[in-house]
Amino acid sequence: MRISYKKLWKLLIDKDMMKKELATKAGISSASIAKLGKNENVNTNILLKICIAMKCDISDIMEVVTEENSIDNKENNHNV
Hints:
Radius of gyration: 13 Å
Order of helices and strands: EHHHHEH
Distance between the termini: 25 Å
Shape: globular
Number of strands: 2
Number of helices: 5
Structural class: mainly alpha
């Protein structure tokens, strides 16, 4: 199992916001944005700042996915 931040990127698209704008609004570094982009671990304070800036809940920006779901999604993307 792993963490996925796809929900965050979809939320940014819905709000017509760039990653750089999110970093500025949330007061987080570009390094943190890069970690999120790679689905790497970030401090919970970073996630809290994002939630406050985006006025959302933690479940709106991240989810736990199983490796099986991750593989299925990759296969489905190649078939499109």
